[in-house]
Amino acid sequence: MIEEINSIKNQNTFKKSLFRGTIFKFSNSKNALKIVDTIKKEVQNYYSNNLESLHLEKDAELISKQLISKLKNQDQLLNLFEDFLKEINFEIKDCYRDKFVVRIAPAEFKKATYEASRIGIHRDTWGTNIFEQVNWWAPINNLDQTNTLIFYPEYFNQPIKNTTSTWDLDTYFKKRKLGEFDYPSAPQLLDDLKKETKTIRVNINPGEILCFSGSHLHSSSKENSNTSRFSYEIRTVSDSDIRGKRYAPNVDCALNAKYPKIFKHMVTKNILEIN
Ligand SMILES: [Fe+2]
Fold first, then answer.
1. Cα angle at 12 between 200 and 31, to 5 degrees?
2. Which fold would CATH assign to domain 2-265?
3. In whole angstroms, how large is the CA radius of gyration of the chain?
4. pLDDT tens for residues 68-84?
5. Largest alpha-carbon pair distance within the chain?
């Protein structure tokens, strides 16, 4: 289910496979390693101990919050990510991206502060209603199997109850601007997964990058761990996929609107528009 590759041989075949649910892992990329090194160097300006042990610090939550905000959407990281896309032959001339975000998943499952938290079961497309959306995700430190990303691949084609019919991105943005955090940052799952649902627990090293359809149902792992997890993520939407009608199935998203405004063109910085 996770296909390891170094570069894209054919855009159309790659995208079709991606939107049918294949999860790709890009290995042996010099730019992916550069991204990890650059983030680690940036982190060291503010925090010099082992990343894996961050949860042992007295003020771990505050440090996490500060690191995440310092590292958010830095131009040097966006440029390196663009270099990575070029290196793997991903077409960038019609590619839009959201923000480059570093996330810290604490060792203890229950500890949560905004982006510094474990994430519950969701599809990223529940937040945007854009099924051409591609997720890129990568670890910065060595992952422990008790603190990694988990996929539920059989739900790629199967619906599950959720709150998309009542959630609205604009309401969420409005509330955050007012400093109110009582509105969920994304739609929520409303049902339990079926018993014996198959899971894929991601095994990936720093310097490798995972690429998957934003429609995949996924979450952070739920166990308590001995390590803090540092990862980064960014999402892309390619205009050629919209025009070429290449997209993942919508099995259960009932959002009233699409939210292309969170995506900016990789080069021109124009905002994505979907008619
Ligand atoms: Fe996600």
1. 65
2. Jelly Rolls (2.60.120)
3. 18
4. 889 999 999 999 999 99
5. 52
Please identify every residue whose CB atom is under 5 Å from ligand 1, which is an ion.
124
Calculate how far, in angstroms, residue 127's C-alpha sits from the geometric centre of ligand 1: 10
Q: How far, in Å, is the centroid of ligand 1 from the Cα of 194? A: 20
What b/e string do you get for 41-73 counting C-beta neighbours within 10 Å, with b at 16 or more? ebbeeebeeebbebbeeeebbebbbebbeebee
Residue 219 to residues 19, 62, 208: CA-CA distances in angstroms?
A: 19, 23, 19
pLDDT the model gives residue 118: 65
State the DSSP code for 164: T
pLDDT of the residue at 205: 95
Instruction: Give 164 Cα–ligand 1 centroid separation in angstroms.
Output: 15
User: Token match 């923000």: residue?
Assistant: 99
pTM of the model: 0.94
101/78 Cα distance (integer angstroms): 10
136-190: per-residue pLDDT in tens?
Answer: 999 999 888 878 899 999 999 999 999 999 999 999 999 989 988 889 888 999 9
CB-CB contact of 158 with 248 (8 Å): no
Instruction: For residue 219, report the distance from its CA to the centre of ligand 1, in Å.
Output: 7
Q: Which residues of the chain have pLDDT under 50?
A: 114
